[in-house]
Amino acid sequence: MNRSPILRGASTGAFVAACILGMPAIARAQDGVRISPPYTPVENAQAPVVAVTALRDSVVSRARAQLGKRYRYGGETPKHGFDCSGLVSYVMSSLSLMVPRTAAAQALVGIEIVRDTARLLPGDLVTFGRGKSITHIGIYVGNGRFIQASSRAHKVIEVDLLRAPAAGIRPWLGVRRLVSPDTAAAPADGPAPAGRTR
Predict the structure, then answer these.
(1) Is 80 considered catalytic here?
(2) Which class for 59: exposed (0-12), middle (13-18), buried (19 or more C-beta within 10 A)?
(3) Catalytic: which of 19, 66, 136, 154?
């Protein structure tokens, strides 16, 4: 139905008047509304990197704290000694990074990294053996060196990763990375466990 221009003008005027009269109420309703500033993640962009670096440093520190502890097959505590996988298990679990108990099983956890010294980072696990059989494992601590519980030295030692072939020295086979941004949320300063059961 066609409205006359007068009626159309009257209804438009009533609408405008209602909006003007309603403005104070709208303003009062918005008094408690908080306007958030735009999201700016720049300040926290480095947080994951810092957390990962701190966790890696903690792995190295915990591993170095065991230097000189005696080698003992099946050992997994500072008091009773360590074998290679027992040392890895102890250090990692002290930082809430749970790993299996044997070297072969530990060589399957985390992310596989190319066997290249330029790609290694402190806290990586380095594996040794012959063929596809993993028989030994240690913790890379940087500068081309790693920490291991050595049956030959009868204690936990820090040695060069790249060594000349010799009797009793197993070839370096691979690298596994447990410490990544996904694991950095784990507490890095928790108490070291007394030991783990198999």
Answers:
(1) no
(2) buried
(3) 136
| Digit-coded pLDDT (tens) for 137-194 | 999 999 999 999 999 999 999 999 998 877 778 899 999 999 988 665 544 444 444 4
State how far the Cα of 176 lies from the Cα of 27, in Å rounded to an integer.
60
CB contact at 8 A, 122 and 166: no
Active site (annotated) includes residue 148: yes
- Supply the DSSP string of 47-61, one letter for each residue: HHHHHHHHHHHHHHH
Instruction: Please tell me which residue in 46, 66, 80, 84 is annotated as part of the active site.
Output: 84
Going from the N-terminus, what domains does the chain have, and what CATH number goes with each?
A: 47-177 (3.90.1720.10)
**66 an active-site residue?**
no
Q: Which helix (H) or strand (E) holds 133?
A: strand 133-142
Q: What is the pTM of this model?
A: 0.70
Which residues make Cβ contacts (< 8 Å) with residue 73, sequence separation at least 6?
83, 151
Give the percent of the chain with pLDDT over 70.
Answer: 67
